[in-house]
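Weekly modeling sync, notes
Attendees: AB, CL, MP (scribe)

Item 1: holo prediction request
CL wants a bound-state model with PMV before deciding which constructs to order. AB pointed out that an apo prediction alone won't tell us much about the pocket. Agreed to run with the ligand included and paste results into these notes for async review.

Input as submitted:
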Amino acid sequence: MTSISATAVACPNIAFIKYWGDIDPSLHIPANGSISMNLANLITRTIVNYDPSLLQDQFRLNGESTTDEALERVSILLNRVRQLANISTFARVESNNNFPTSVGIASSASGFAALSLASSKAAGLELDEKELSRLARTGSGSACRSIPGGFVEWHAGDEDADSYAYSIASPSHWNLADCITIVSQEEKPISSSVGHALAETSILQAARIADAPHRLNLCRAAILACDFDQLAEVVELDSNLMHAVMFTSTPPLLYWQPATVAIMHAVQSWRKEGLPVCYTIDAGPNVHVLCLGEQVEMIVERIQQLPGVTQVLTAHPGGPAMLEERA
Ligand code: PMV
């Protein structure tokens, strides 16, 4: 095999209905389905180059070598691709985020989505969206939702073949915005992969999972009807449920900082005033404040007045992972 490369781009996503806990941790088969929105303009660009002269895979993120653990996760995904394509050549992987990595936005979803597309293409495979989503899932669960575009649902399934994500509405369906409110830039103390394994130590996880189909139905219907009030209610409920599981795991996970709680209070009081706005929080202290696209500037201005806010990034619904033509 001669050296051959491909480049792909993908955006991260914010979950409206969260994935927390696996039934199969090695394949990231989740305990419940989830729904998310891709975040436009926040882009990971990944180049994969299979090079017969390499003695092992190489991985650079934002121009720097990574930890052995990060390289191992990349190699595990590349091994699946090599197996599918029946090749054994090692690859050089260069991944760059156009958003500051230090601000605490998880780049694993966009990273593994872009890696799946670029690595499979460069290996000569023509995977369809479902196959790509399944492949991305094996790198990081939420990455399967960064393969399709717009508003995306991850069908939990119960094995590799039926656990994948698909689009339920295009990016132009609803002009929503995510105001990503940064309160801490420190790396999270407990990674989500460790957190998923703790979920079932909480007695609340079973109840959260049992009710997930109901919340998925409410969220899907709210998106399809562009009903912000219904979306706000189910999105905050779902985020609160996930954090309740986190607080009550053994050991307990408390990701919030005082500024996190101050933003939650502010968002709820703005909604009482009649503003369409709600919050959702992932495995960290930063808060995603969702609002209507046409009100984003006014909401960002309000957020910037709150204590402890260091930066606000905004994103509208984003498209699917895509290949980039060679320059
Ligand atoms: O894909 P992971 O292992 O990084 O897990 C993502 C977990 C949450 O961000 C907290 C929820 C979600 O569904 O994105």
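Recorded for review: The first helix runs from residue 68 to 85.
Action items: CL to compare against the apo run; MP to circulate these notes.
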